[in-house]
Amino acid sequence: MDERQEQEIIDAVLDGDAGAYALLVRRYERPLFGLMMRLTRNHDDALELSQDTFFRAYDRLEQFRAGGRFFPWLYAIGLNIGREFLRRKRLPTVSVEAFESEPAAFGVPPQQEALLLARATAEEVDAALGQLTEETREALILRYREDFSLEEVASSLDISLSAVKMRLSRGLIRLRRMLTEDGHEPEQKQRGS
Fold this sequence. Notes:
By secondary structure, this protein is mainly α. The chain folds into two domains: about 5-90, Rna Polymerase Sigma Factor, Chain: A, CATH 1.10.1740.10; about 105-190, Arc Repressor Mutant, subunit A. The protein contains ten helices and no strands. It has helices at about 5-15, 20-40, 45-60, 70-90, 110-120, 120-130, 135-145, 150-155, 160-180, 185-190.
């Protein structure tokens, strides 16, 4: 579904065709549920929060900016609902030590990152993602799993473009370290050993 089709559906809903909203729900229920599962790690809570998100988005549909993509807007609403839920429940969050910028670490070639991530299993990557801060994890997921542009990530997370770039860069470095510590050395290092 492209932006034009989404806008046509939104216009129909705003013109009184509430049933048209079901098309948006069907299109985005799985990725939204995935967000809520990552936040809560509980099926029932994730289902309830997904429904709450769709209801809140429906109530605020007139605030949707024409010409934009619906999913980043919906995702931002869902992220806020999920965070609000976690604050209320006071669920434990995984904290990762704050680390200083390391100029050498920022020089890791993208090809090496791609090789490393390609060789790690999805479960290992998910486990490593779970050890990142919520902010870093969401930026990485939006950019690399949901294929959001940098601008869409910034808009969804309500942060600046430079903050998105920093979170992505630091997140990839942290993932690389965690996956490397688990025995997934990049090919270049293995050959040289």
